[in-house]
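Problem: given the chain below (384 residues), write out its structure.
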Amino acid sequence: METLNAAAAREFFRKTYGCEPDVIGSAPGRVNLIGEHTDYNGGQVLPLAIDRRTYVAMKRRTDGGTSRLASETGTGTAEFDARSIERSGQWWDYVTGVFASFVPRKGALPQVQAVVTSNLPAGSGLSSSAALEMATSITLAKLADEERSLKDLALLSWQVETQFVGVSCGVMDQFASALGEKGRALHLWCDTLATEQVPMGQAVLIFDTNSPRSLRGSQFNIRQRECQEALALLRNRNPDLADLAAASPDEVRAAGLPDNLEKRALHVTEETRRVERLVAVLKETGQVDGDLLYQSHESLRTLYECSTPQLDWFVNESRKIHGVRGARLTGAGWGGCAIAVGDLDALSGAQPGLIANYKSKFGLDARTWLTSAEAGARVEVPGK
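Solution.
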C-alpha cells in the first residue's frame, strides 16, 4: 500500500500554496462485509472502515479572494465562492457540495485554500466519494469552529451525495467512513440509523478488478427505482409496510410482482436477514460465516444482476483457496471490487497467483491489498 498520511497532505499543501494549512482531516474508504443494496431500502448493513484514506487540508483565506481547491491526483483544480456554490458536474462537487450543505450556526463560512490527497482508488466500490465528503466535512467543521458530531457530519455528507451530486444512495457509506472503529464492523439499521459495533478481527483481501464504473452512469439509479416500484406494489397488499427490507421473502413471492421487481425485492429482503445472521455469528464466535458471503454474492449475481464476469471469477477462485472463509463483491457492483475474508497468511499468499491468473484471463491488471477494520474520520491536525 502506498504510504500516505497527514504529513504528505501538509507537504502537498505547502507546495501548492506556499504556506501551512490550518486544519487537516481524513476519512477512510469502506468495504461492506454483507448487506448490499439494502441501505436505501431501509435494511441492515455491516461495513467496516479500511486502512486507505482521503485527506483534506484547508486554510482560511483572509485576503478577500475566493476559494481554491487542488488534488494531488492531477484531476484539475477548482475555484469557487464558498458562500455561493454551483454544481459543476466535476469531481470537486463532492467538496463544494459540503460547503453548500454546511449551514454555520453563526456567521458565514470562510473562503479557503484546500487540497485533497488520497490513496483510495476512485470508481472501485470502496466509497471514495463518501471518504472525500467526510474528510471535507470534518475539516470544514473544525476550521469554522463548529461542534458537530460524527453522525451529524455523516448525514450532511449523505445529503451532499444524494441532493447535490445526485446519486440515490443510502447512508451506509458515509456512516461507515465516519463511525468505523479499529477491530470492529459497524452494524447499521438504515431505517432508524441505530448502530452497534461488532467484533471483526479477521483479515480482508480487497481485489480491485480495475474495471471501474461510475454510479452516475451505471444501472444503480435504475435499481433504486425498481425497488421503489416493488415497494409501492407490496403496499397495495400491506399498507403498513415501512420499507422494502421490512417485507418477508414469502410476502414478496406471494405478491405476484413483475419478474424483475420480484428479483430485486427478494434480494433485498433476504440480504438484510443475512446481515442479522452474520452479526449473530460474529458475536458468538468472532469468525465470519463464509457461506453467508457466498449466498450474498449469488443473490447479487442472479437476483440483483449487478455482478460482472470479473467479480464472479474472483469469488469462484477464492473458493479454491485453503484458509479463505468466504468471498463476495462489495460496493454497488457493475465492476469495482470484491473481497475475500479469512486467514491473513492464506490471503497474503494467494495474492500473486490471483493477480497473474486474472491478467491471463481478462487482460487486466488487478490491484489487491490486505486490510482489516480500522478507525473512521478524524481531525489529523487541529486548527489553532
